[in-house]
Amino acid sequence: MSSDTDGTRVEQLATVRDRVPLRVYIISTVILLERAAFFGCTTTFQNYLQNGHDDPLRPGLLGLGQSTAVAIIYAFSFLNYVTPLLGGIVADTWIGRYRAIQLGLLCDTLGIAILATTAFTQHFHHVGGLAGYIVAICLIAFGAGGAKPNLMAFMIDQCPEQDAREIYLKDGKRVLTDRGLTVQFIYNMNYWMINLGSLAGILTTLTEKVKGFGYAYLIPLGFMVVALAVFHLETSRYVLPMPTQNILPVVFRLIIRRSRGRSGPAAEQSNSSVLESDRASPTPTLTNDDAILAKQVKTAIKSCLIFTPFIPLYFSIDLMSNNLISQAGTMSTHGLPNDIMFNVNAISVMILLPLIQGLLYPVLAKHSIPFPPTYRVVTGLFFAALAIAYTTGVQALIYENSPCGRFALSCGARESGLSIWLQTPTYVLLALAEILAIVSGTELAYTRAPEGMKSIVQAVFILFGAGGAILGVASSPAARDPYMVVVYAVISGVMGVTTAVFCLENGREEGVELGVVEAVGVGSVGRGGNGRPAEILSGTAEGRAELGTVNGKNGGVDVVELKTNE
C-alpha cells in the first residue's frame, strides 16, 4: 500500500483462481464421456434417417428423405431442450443433483443400447429401425435432461462459496483467491471438454461409412458405460447439496400475478400474502425470510428473460446436425462421409477457446476495454448471423454448379463439383458464436440465479433452445430443394435483427448493472469470494472506494488498482 501526493491511497490487489479439487476434474471427465456418447450418436442421425441403405453416395438406413429427417431431428432437439427443466426441478426440489445425474446416465445408456440393437436388426432383417430409434431418442433425451443441467451445477457445488483467501504465488507475490475466476475457469474448461467429446463424431461417422450404423453406436455405448464407472470414483468425497423444499407453488403464483401487470406496493403486499398462504400449506417455502424468497423468484424470472435471443441462435447452431449435413451431401467429399464436417466446429472451439480466454480477454483487460457477458452474447449473435449468411452464398453456388440445378439432392451419384471444405467458414463462425454467446449465457444462468434455483435456471437457459427446435420443425417443410437459399437467407436475416435488438435493449443496462467490474474482460475481476461484486465498489461519503484501472497481467493474474479517496 502506498500514498499518492494528492492524498489518495492506492493498493495493488491481484486476484487469481483458487485450486480446483480433483472431484471437479472427475465430473468434467464424466461430462466429456457423456457428451462424446451424445454427439457420437447424433452426428449420424441425419444420414441414418434421410438416406436409404442402397444409397450409392451417402451412408443411410431408413430412407425417410430430407424434410422428414430434419423434422424428426428437430423434434429430438426439442426434447433435449425441454427435459432439462424437468431434471432441474426434480434435482433442486426432490432427489438432489447426485441422484438425478445417476438416473440420467442410466437412462442415456439404456437408450443408446436400444439404438445400437435396432440398427443391427434394421440392417440385417429390415425391421425395428424406426420404432427403436423413436424409443431410443426419447430415453436419450430424458437421460440428457437428468444429466445436462445438473452435471455443471454439481461441478460448481464442489467449490463451495468462501471468502477470498490470501495466498502466495511461487514468486512470493501475495494475491487473493477469487471464486469468480475459479468458476469461470471451470466453465471454460467444461466447454472445452464438451467439444473434445463431440469429436467422437469422427469415430462414429467413419464407422458408419465402413461397417454400418450398428457398429457405430457401440462406440457411444462404451463411452456411457465408462462414464457411469468414473462418476462413482469420488462418491464419498462429493459435496452433496440437499434438495430444497418445493418452492414451485410460490414461483407459479408470483409469475401469474406478475403477468397480470400488477406492480408497486399493492403487488408487493399481494406477493407477501401469497407467501403467507404458502407458509401455512403442507409444503413450506424455501427460505427463512419469505420476503427474500419473493425477491429471489423475481431475480430468477428476470435472469431468464435475457435468454430470449438464444432461440434463433440455437436454431442456427442446430443446422449443423441436419441441413448442413444434407448440403455437404451435394458437394465433393473427397472420400469422406458427408457428416464429418460437424467436427470442424468442435475442433475450432478447442483451438479458439484457449486463444480467446488466454489472449483476447487479457488484452482487453489490459487496455480497460469493456467486454462483459452481454457484450459477448451480442458478438456471438453477430457471428452466427454472419455464418448463415455465408452458408446462403455456398448454397447459391451449389445450385449454380449442380448438374441438376436447384434440385441438387436428386442427382444421385452426381455432385456439384464444389469441395466440402467450402463449409469450413460456417463451422468456424458458429464456433465463435458458441464460445462468446453460449458460454456467457451459461455463466449468466448460474451467477444470476438465486440459491436453491440454480439447476432450474440452468435448465430454463437450455429450455430456450426448445424455441429454436420449434422453429426448426416449423421450417422443415421448406427445408428441401429448391428452397434452401431462401431458407438460409431468412435465418441469417432473423439472426441479424435479433443481434441488433438485443444490443439496443441490453447495452445500456449492462453498463449500469454490471459496472466496470464485469467490464474488465473476464467478468470476474474485482469480485468477492462469493462471486458477487466485491465490497470495493461500495463506500460512504467519508471514504468512497472506486475501481481503478487494470494494470495488466502478471503471470496470468489480473491486477486491479484500488483507489480510496479519504
Please give a structural write-up.
With 566 residues, this protein is an alpha+beta fold. It has one domain: Growth Hormone, Chain: A. The protein is 63% helix and 6% strand. Strands 1, 2, 3, 4, 5 and 6 form a six-stranded mixed sheet that branches. Helix 3 crosses helix 16 and helix 11 runs antiparallel to helix 15. The two termini are 14 Å apart. The N terminus and C terminus are likely disordered. It is found in: Membrane. It is a multi-pass membrane protein. Belongs to the major facilitator superfamily. Proton-dependent oligopeptide transporter (POT/PTR) (TC 2.A.17) family. This is Oligopeptide transporter.
Short synopsis of the structure:
The chain is an alpha+beta fold and 566 residues long.
Structural class: alpha+beta
Cα radius of gyration in angstroms? 25 Å
User: What is the beta-strand fraction?
Assistant: 5-15%
Total number of distinct structural domains: 1
User: What do we call the CATH homologous superfamily?
Assistant: MFS general substrate transporter like domains
Please tell me the overall pLDDT: 78
| Spans where pLDDT lies below 50 across 5 or more residues | 1-10, 277-288, 512-566
Shape: globular
The CATH C-level name is: Mainly Alpha
Give the H and E element order: EEHHHHEEHHHHHHHHHHHHHHEE
Give a count of the beta strands, DSSP E runs of length 2 or more. 6
Through-space gap between termini: 14 Å
CATH fold field value: Growth Hormone, Chain: A
**In this structure, how is the largest beta sheet organized?**
6 strands, mixed
- Shape-level CATH architecture: Up-down Bundle
